[in-house]
């Protein structure tokens, strides 16, 4: 989901934010699911892992999903995307 050059610090910071929103008994599972997104072998695999994460956690722990989605929206604001890519997402840079 994040470009390789964004660095490990961004991934660690996001993971810490997710962990703060998750119940203690679910920390290892949230971490594993998050790693499935950021360390995916391809963009398609990352998108699937993201969809799976949202589906799994939206009812169990909505704060975790909200935190993940907030960072995703911010990332779209920081990265110029071609108009065709913007048409595929409901999130629009301002």
What's the short story on this structure?
The chain is mainly alpha-helical and 94 residues long. The chain has one domain.
Question: Which terms would index this structure?
Answer:
single chain; 94 residues; mainly alpha; 5 helices; 0% strand
Describe the model.
This protein is mostly helical. It has one domain (4-87). The protein is 70% helix and 0% strand. The protein has helices at residues 8-21, 27-38, 43-60, 62-78, 83-87. α3 runs antiparallel to α4 (62-78). The longest helix has 18 residues, at 43-60.
Strand tally is: 0
Shape: globular
CA-based gyration radius? 13 Å
Largest sheet at a glance? none
Strand content: under 5%
The end-to-end distance, rounded to whole angstroms, is 20 Å
| Total number of distinct structural domains | 1
Helix and strand succession? HHHHH
Q: Could you say which structural class the secondary elements and strand pairing correspond to?
A: mainly alpha
The residue ranges in which pLDDT falls below 50 over 5 or more consecutive positions are: 76-82
Supply the number of helical segments.
5
Task: Provide mean pLDDT, rounded.
Answer: 78
- Percent range of helical residues: over 70%
Q: How is the secondary structure organized here?
A:
Elements: H1 8-21, H2 27-38, H3 43-60, H4 62-78, H5 83-87
Helix pairs in contact: 1-2, 1-4, 2-3, 3-4
